[in-house]
Each structure stands twice: as C-alpha cells, then as structure tokens.
Amino acid sequence: xxxxxxxxxxxxxxxxxxxxxxxxxxxxxxxxxxxxxxxxxxxxxxxxxxxxxxxxxxxxxxxxxxxxxxxxxxxxxxxxxxxxx
Length: 85
Prior knowledge:
Layout: H1 22-35, H2 39-51, H3 57-73, H4 77-80
Helix pairs in contact: 1-2
C-alpha cells in the first residue's frame, strides 16, 4: 500500500487560537526558525519542555527532521518561511 501524499497526520488535537504579544512575536518566530520548526510545533515543544509533559510522536519526528535538514543544508529556512509568515 502506498503512502498517502501530503502532510503527516498529527492525531487528535484541540484547536486554539493564540494571540502572541506583538513585541514577542519576532523573537518567537526567530526561535522557531533557529530550530527549523514551524511556530506551532515549536510552542508545543517548548511547553512540553517547561512543563515536563510528554511530547507527541509527531513533534519528535518534526524535531528529528529539522535537525537532519539543518545538518544537511545549514538551516532550511526557505521552506519554513511559508510556515511562519
């Protein structure tokens, strides 16, 4: 059976709009880009780290992919620019 095209499924999630303070947004965006993650994944990762929560497998997969991408081509920002605009 072939793999379904498109983004990997991230399982059941609760939708929540988060409004970041304007003066914090650039720092959040830069931190996410520095790790090679989109903002949503970065926020979940940091919250899990700070609160000692288990991270979903897809977050760990995204982190591993980002690290691999960074090791291969430096940072991979071109692709991520679309995710954090």
